[in-house]
Amino acid sequence: MTLRDFVCLSEIGKDELVCFKGIMLCENIIHGYKVILYRIDNFFVEVYYDLQKKTKPKFKGCVRSDMLMLEEAG
User: Fold this and answer.
1) For residue 46, what are the CA distances in angstroms to 7, 51?
2) Contacts for 5-14: CB closer than 8 Å, 24+ residues apart
3) Residue 11's CB: how many other CB atoms inside 10 A?
4) Could you say which DSSP state residue 64 is in?
5) Other CB atoms closer than 10 Å to residue 45's CB: what's the count?
6) How far from 21 is each of 15, 42, 74, CA to CA, in Å?
7) pLDDT score, position 62
8) Percent of the chain whose pLDDT exceeds 70
9) What value does the CA radius of gyration of the chain take, rounded to a whole number of Å?
10) Quick one: pLDDT at residue 26?
């Protein structure tokens, strides 16, 4: 699986892939979102859960760890 493959998946497909293949690295609360960082093969995925609206999670993938939002919160 590549990041490009991941981006092309449906939201349900992304959710299933993260659940079954993702390795959870850390979690944090940032600007009202619970953000969980996963590693899948050679890329990272941040999953954003809106703590107030309780909407479906949003997914953000990247290949470089310095692009991750979680690193801002330290």
Assistant:
1) 12, 15
2) 6/40, 6/43, 6/45, 6/59, 6/61, 7/61, 11/56, 11/59, 14/45, 14/59
3) 11
4) -
5) 22
6) 10, 12, 25
7) 86
8) 86
9) 12
10) 93
Q: For each of the chain's 74 residues, which pLDDT tens digit applies?
A: 899 999 999 999 999 999 999 999 999 998 899 999 999 999 999 999 999 998 889 999 888 766 556 554 44
Fold of 3-73: Viral Envelope Glycoprotein; domain 2 (3.30.67)
Residue 13, token pair as written in the block: 């497909």
The identity of residue 28, as a single letter, is: N
Of 44, 41, 51, which is closest to residue 70 (Cα–Cα)? 44
